[in-house]
Amino acid sequence: MVFGSASNWFSPTNPNKLVEDGQRARKPAMEGIRSVPDMRQERTPQEADAEIDHEMARPPYVHAILAGGIGGTTGDMLMHSLDTVKTRQQGDPHMPPKYTSMGNTYYTIWRQEGLSRGLYGGVQPAFVGSFLGTCAFFGTYEWSKRLMIDNGIAPSVSYFTAGLVADLAAAPVYVPSEVLKTRLQLQGRHNNPYFNSGYNYRSTIDAARTIARTEGFGALFYGYKATLWRDLPFSALQFAFYEEERELAKKYMGSSNIGLPLEILTAASAGGMAGVITTPLDVVKTRIQTQQPSTSSAPAPASTAPLSPSSTTKHSTPSASHKSSAPSNRPISTSSPSTTLKAHGAATLDTSSVIRGLRLIYQTEGIWGCFRGVGPRGVWTSVQSGTMLVLYQTLLKYFEQNAVV
Fold first, then answer.
1. Distance of alpha carbon 205 from alpha carbon 124, whole angstroms
2. Domain residue extents for the chain
3. Does the domain at residues 45-292+374-401 carry the CATH identifier 1.50.40.10?
């Protein structure tokens, strides 16, 4: 009987008994496991999008470089005329200044000098420098940001630091074009009868040759430190604001696709805030790059002025209309546009130090002198950043969907 019972367990007539018993034994355990909530299924769309956004949705470097170059250049070209207005206000050597409010300056330049040679003076070096500079910037920004995030650095710190590193990479290309652009913007048209800036270049090539011949090749890098002082904090603040604002917008929308209105709002507000905050550094940069050799306080006859048509205008001054062999710097207007100051005078910005330049401007012009041109700069950086960053995101999506490069 015992052997008979035992044989029944191994007989072919009941082959599934062990399997059935095993399934019955596992059933309570499997039910217990199934009762545990599936954390992957219960993740919110915001959490899933954030994970994808930080870890996986990384565009190829070629896409980032092309999208950044096209977006940055488009933004710069779109707002070049307003940048000219800002440069005229910041670099105007006349006392009292010819250019006051933003609207008055824009209309005056357009009416007297036209569009291509007035408001869009210096557009050629601006185009070249903008495209090459933004290509270098966005490629470096993406690389450094990913490197820091992958090594455990907080995203907010990574965004800020990546902006600094990216500007360091772009500066060697950007600064020479900025010097040429700024001087041509301040000059306006060749033989300008309406405004005497002290410069009179025939073209961009003539400006580069003249600067290298008369001031040395190093003059093309005038204001290099001042440009870094302005652009490093600007880019760091701009991208820190932008990335954080986009994260808030994603949480608000519940998706990584925040829509065009919020894309424009986040990009424009980030650029505008960073531009306003860094205006004093931009004022110093503009004045260092546009200062030139001139005479001391001794008056000179009007016949020695380099631009005879402008020597008879009410805005010409002896210190800005003739040259001397003595290497001193051009007097800078101490009156701020749209601001009433104690008195009009001239302060010589005879230093390449940003700190000393800021101190000198503040001592002679007050706080409003440090924020000269803040109106056009705030509008310019806001629109330019909005255009650049929205195009950047749009082009990245286009490249990805169409498998470009």
1. 10
2. 45-292+374-401
3. yes
